[in-house]
Amino acid sequence: WDAADMPPAVAWGAADRFSFEPDLIVQLREDITLPDFGSDQWLNVPMEDTGLTEDRYIQMAEIKPLRGTAVVHHANAIARRGRGDGEIGPGEGSPHLVEYAVGKAGEHYPEGSGKLLAAGSQLVMNLHLHSIGEETKVNTALGLKLYPSGYTPKRVQFSRVFPFPSKMEQDEIDIPPGENNARTDSYHYVEQPMLITAFQPHLHNRGKRQCLEAIYPRSPSAPWPESQGGPYRVRPELISCADFQFNWHLQYTYEDDVQPLIPTGTILHLISWHDNSAANRGNPDPTAWVGFGQRSIDEMALMWLEYSYLTDEEYEAALRTRRAQPGANAGNQQ
User: Fold this and answer.
1) CA-CA distances (angstroms) from residue 286 to 180, 271, 290, 296?
2) Which residue among 156, 228, 245, 262 is buried most deeply as judged by most CB within 10 Å?
3) Where are the domains of the chain?
4) For 236-295, what is each residue's pLDDT tens digit?
C-alpha cells in the first residue's frame, strides 16, 4: 500500500476521549516524564485551575489519559478544599471525585444526585505509574458534566474505596503459588443509612471475581420468616457479584428501583477471589506467593462504592416507596 493514498489522520481533540460531552476539562499542568525502567511511582500532581467561582455539582465525571496510557495503573481526581485530613461524612462533598483504571468509562450519577465541587477547590491527580521499558510522557485529563449554576441536587453523591479506613483485611490476602481460587473476606460496619448506586471491584492481575453481601441487623419490628433466618436473626443478602479482568475495570450501576437501601448496623461483607495459576493469562508469575501491595504485581481485594447517605427519616421514606412498588421484593426491607 502507498501511504500517499491514505486519508488524512483524524485530529482527535481532548473532548473526543470522553463518553459524554464535558462542560469542563482540566489536565495536569505539565507532562510527567516516566523513565524506561525503575520502581512504580505514586504521585500527587496539581491540575489546572477550574476557573469556577461558585459551588457546582457534578452530574458526570471521567478521567482519561492524554499521553502515556500504557503506564497509567490508576488515576484518582481529588478536590482539596483547604483541609488536609481528607475526611468524608454526612452532608459533605467527598474530596475524591472519580477514579480511573484500565478500561473504565465515565461515571453517570443518578438523576437528582451529584458530587460537590466546591468553589476554590484545588484539583490534584493521584497517579500510580508503572515503567514499560521506554521513556514515556504522561498526562491525564478530568472531564466533568456539571448541573446548571445554582442547582442543588436532592442527594450528595460519595465515592469511596472499601474496606476503609482499616486495611487489616488486606494484610490477610494469602495467595499460594498456582492457586486458582484463593479467597479473601473483608467487612465494613455501616454507621448511617446509605443508598448504594454503583459497585466496582478493584483487584490486580490475578483478580478473578468479587461479590458484595449485606448482613442486615436483627429486626424485631419486621421479623424474618424461618426460611430467612427466623424472627430475631441477622440476615445476609447478596447484592452484587461480578467477574473481574484487569484490563476492564467496570463499574456496575444499579437501576433506580433496585439500588440497595442499607440500614444502620448492617455489615458489608466483601468476598474476593484470585487466580494465581498458569491458566490465568494475565498472571505475571504463577510460581510466586502473592500478598497485599500497591504494585501492579502485588494484589488487592478492594471495591469502590458510589452511594449517598440518608437520614433515618429519608431511609424510612425510601423503604415505604420501595415496598409500594408493584412486585417489590422483600429484599433489604427492615
Assistant:
1) 10, 22, 9, 14
2) 262
3) 3-155, 161-324
4) 888 899 999 999 999 999 999 999 999 999 999 999 999 999 999 999 999 999 999 888
Task: Compute the distance between CA of residue 72 and CA of residue 58 in angstroms, rounded to an integer.
Answer: 24
CB 115 within 8 A of CB 156: yes
User: What are 166's three cell numbers?
Assistant: 482499616
| pLDDT-based confidence at residue 112 (cuts at 50, 70, 90) | very high
Q: What's the whole-number mean pLDDT along residues 94-98?
A: 80
The radius of gyration computed from the CA coordinates of the chain, to the nearest angstrom, equals 22
Do domains 3-155 and 161-324 share one topology? The answer is: yes
Contacts of 76 (CB under 8 A, 6+ apart): 96, 98, 99, 100, 125, 126
* Cα-based torsion angle of the residue sequence 293, 294, 298, 303 in order, rounded to the nearest 10 degrees: 90
| 3-155 CATH fold | Jelly Rolls (2.60.120)
